[in-house]
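Batch manifest, entry 17 of 40.
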Amino acid sequence: MSQTTILVIDDDEATLLLVRALLEPAGYAVRTARDGATALISAKHHEPDLIILDIGLPGGDGLSVLRRIRAMGTLNVTPVIVHTGKDDPDWQRQAMEAGASHFIKKSPDKDELLAEVQARLRTDEPRRTVRCPQCGHEFEPSESEAGS
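Output type: C-alpha coordinates
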Protein backbone atom coordinates (compact mmCIF):
# COMPACT_ATOMS: atom_id res chain seq x y z
CA MET A 1 0.00 0.00 0.00
CA SER A 2 1.34 3.44 -0.86
CA GLN A 3 1.99 6.20 1.63
CA THR A 4 -0.84 8.68 2.26
CA THR A 5 -0.05 11.94 0.48
CA ILE A 6 -1.09 15.34 1.81
CA LEU A 7 -0.85 18.54 -0.22
CA VAL A 8 -0.32 21.60 1.98
CA ILE A 9 -1.12 24.93 0.31
CA ASP A 10 0.03 28.06 2.13
CA ASP A 11 1.93 31.18 1.09
CA ASP A 12 3.80 31.30 4.41
CA GLU A 13 7.03 29.27 4.27
CA ALA A 14 7.19 28.97 8.08
CA THR A 15 3.71 27.42 8.13
CA LEU A 16 4.65 24.97 5.38
CA LEU A 17 7.74 23.90 7.31
CA LEU A 18 5.80 23.57 10.55
CA VAL A 19 3.03 21.48 9.01
CA ARG A 20 5.58 19.28 7.21
CA ALA A 21 7.45 18.78 10.50
CA LEU A 22 4.16 17.72 12.11
CA LEU A 23 2.92 15.36 9.39
CA GLU A 24 6.04 13.58 8.11
CA PRO A 25 6.93 11.99 11.47
CA ALA A 26 3.33 10.74 11.62
CA GLY A 27 4.01 8.78 8.40
CA TYR A 28 2.49 11.07 5.75
CA ALA A 29 4.13 12.09 2.48
CA VAL A 30 3.86 15.88 2.25
CA ARG A 31 3.83 18.01 -0.88
CA THR A 32 3.65 21.79 -0.67
CA ALA A 33 2.54 24.71 -2.81
CA ARG A 34 2.84 28.44 -2.06
CA ASP A 35 0.30 29.80 -4.56
CA GLY A 36 -2.93 28.84 -6.26
CA ALA A 37 -1.50 28.05 -9.70
CA THR A 38 1.16 25.71 -8.31
CA ALA A 39 -1.39 24.12 -6.00
CA LEU A 40 -3.75 23.30 -8.86
CA ILE A 41 -0.98 21.76 -10.96
CA SER A 42 0.26 19.70 -8.01
CA ALA A 43 -3.24 18.57 -7.05
CA LYS A 44 -4.02 17.45 -10.60
CA HIS A 45 -0.69 15.71 -11.13
CA HIS A 46 -0.32 13.99 -7.73
CA GLU A 47 -3.97 13.48 -6.66
CA PRO A 48 -3.29 13.75 -2.92
CA ASP A 49 -5.33 11.84 -0.35
CA LEU A 50 -6.00 15.04 1.61
CA ILE A 51 -5.44 18.76 1.09
CA ILE A 52 -4.72 21.42 3.72
CA LEU A 53 -5.52 24.83 2.25
CA ASP A 54 -4.96 28.39 3.45
CA ILE A 55 -7.54 30.98 2.35
CA GLY A 56 -5.15 33.88 1.63
CA LEU A 57 -2.98 32.98 -1.35
CA PRO A 58 -1.18 35.04 -3.98
CA GLY A 59 -2.51 34.52 -7.49
CA GLY A 60 -6.06 33.70 -6.41
CA ASP A 61 -7.69 33.31 -3.06
CA GLY A 62 -8.02 29.92 -1.42
CA LEU A 63 -11.76 29.76 -2.02
CA SER A 64 -11.31 29.97 -5.80
CA VAL A 65 -8.57 27.32 -5.56
CA LEU A 66 -10.94 25.12 -3.56
CA ARG A 67 -13.71 25.53 -6.14
CA ARG A 68 -11.33 24.59 -8.94
CA ILE A 69 -10.08 21.55 -7.02
CA ARG A 70 -13.68 20.41 -6.53
CA ALA A 71 -14.20 20.69 -10.30
CA MET A 72 -11.27 18.33 -11.02
CA GLY A 73 -12.55 14.80 -11.62
CA THR A 74 -11.40 12.52 -8.79
CA LEU A 75 -10.47 15.44 -6.53
CA ASN A 76 -14.10 16.33 -6.00
CA VAL A 77 -14.17 13.83 -3.11
CA THR A 78 -10.71 14.50 -1.67
CA PRO A 79 -10.97 15.83 1.90
CA VAL A 80 -9.95 19.49 2.11
CA ILE A 81 -9.19 21.09 5.46
CA VAL A 82 -9.21 24.87 5.31
CA HIS A 83 -6.44 25.93 7.71
CA THR A 84 -6.37 29.68 8.10
CA GLY A 85 -5.72 32.59 10.40
CA LYS A 86 -9.03 34.19 9.43
CA ASP A 87 -11.47 33.98 12.32
CA ASP A 88 -14.62 35.12 10.55
CA PRO A 89 -17.82 33.02 10.48
CA ASP A 90 -18.55 34.32 6.98
CA TRP A 91 -15.23 32.90 5.69
CA GLN A 92 -16.05 29.58 7.34
CA ARG A 93 -19.49 29.50 5.69
CA GLN A 94 -17.98 30.38 2.30
CA ALA A 95 -15.32 27.68 2.67
CA MET A 96 -17.90 25.03 3.50
CA GLU A 97 -20.12 26.14 0.60
CA ALA A 98 -17.09 25.93 -1.74
CA GLY A 99 -16.55 22.30 -0.73
CA ALA A 100 -14.29 22.28 2.34
CA SER A 101 -14.51 19.16 4.49
CA HIS A 102 -13.55 21.07 7.62
CA PHE A 103 -12.43 24.54 8.70
CA ILE A 104 -9.74 24.91 11.35
CA LYS A 105 -8.16 28.09 12.64
CA LYS A 106 -4.38 28.23 12.72
CA SER A 107 -3.28 27.98 16.31
CA PRO A 108 -0.25 27.10 18.38
CA ASP A 109 -1.91 23.73 19.19
CA LYS A 110 -0.53 21.62 16.33
CA ASP A 111 -1.98 18.43 17.84
CA GLU A 112 -5.39 19.77 16.81
CA LEU A 113 -4.35 19.86 13.14
CA LEU A 114 -2.85 16.35 13.28
CA ALA A 115 -6.00 15.01 14.95
CA GLU A 116 -8.16 16.64 12.28
CA VAL A 117 -6.04 15.18 9.47
CA GLN A 118 -6.36 11.72 10.98
CA ALA A 119 -10.12 12.15 11.48
CA ARG A 120 -10.70 13.33 7.88
CA LEU A 121 -8.68 10.45 6.45
CA ARG A 122 -10.61 8.01 8.61
CA THR A 123 -14.13 9.35 8.00
CA ASP A 124 -14.10 10.63 4.43
CA GLU A 125 -14.74 7.83 1.96
CA PRO A 126 -11.49 6.95 0.22
CA ARG A 127 -11.30 6.98 -3.54
CA ARG A 128 -11.80 3.44 -4.81
CA THR A 129 -9.70 2.38 -7.75
CA VAL A 130 -9.44 -0.82 -9.72
CA ARG A 131 -6.22 -1.91 -11.43
CA CYS A 132 -6.50 -3.50 -14.87
CA PRO A 133 -4.61 -6.85 -14.78
CA GLN A 134 -3.54 -6.55 -18.44
CA CYS A 135 -2.16 -3.01 -18.58
CA GLY A 136 -1.84 -1.99 -14.93
CA HIS A 137 -3.91 1.18 -15.46
CA GLU A 138 -5.95 2.31 -12.42
CA PHE A 139 -9.46 3.65 -12.87
CA GLU A 140 -12.54 4.35 -10.78
CA PRO A 141 -15.45 2.03 -11.50
CA SER A 142 -18.82 3.55 -12.37
CA GLU A 143 -21.74 2.94 -9.99
CA SER A 144 -23.02 0.08 -12.15
CA GLU A 145 -19.60 -1.61 -12.23
CA ALA A 146 -19.09 -1.12 -8.47
CA GLY A 147 -22.28 -3.01 -7.68
CA SER A 148 -21.48 -6.04 -9.82
